[in-house]
Amino acid sequence: MKRKPERDLALVAAVLSTAEAFLRESQRLFRPLGLTGAQFNVLNILSRSEAGLSQRVLSDELLVDRSNVTGLLDRMEKSGWVRRADHPEDRRVYLITLTPAGRALWEKASPLYLEVVAQVTGKVGAREAAACLATLRLLEAGATSWQLPEER
Question: What is the pTM of this model?
Fold first, then answer.
């Protein structure tokens, strides 16, 4: 079957438009709390780890570019939401943990976020969600493995 460039372009445009809408609306949700979406992601990931995570592991789990993680953590540490501590077995590694203020902020933000997610996904059935996830995973794989024509 022949590819339809119009369909492919419309699909990519819809994904990008949706991502932009999510980003814009996450700002509307988090700004009143003094947070960015990236900061919420850090709080959310760290909330599941009492012992803390290395900056490298945290970087791997975050939905932001690695080059932004150090500055992001600097700002969050300055705000009193996270703490960096020396790793007990590796002096080259810092463990990042939530402070009590960071956990309290996460406990305030998380239910709001979950409520918004429920509203956003409320009209999407289980089959549609599964198909959408499968399609998005295919698109993500394609986005990270494409080659220029002369490279093939």
Answer: 0.83
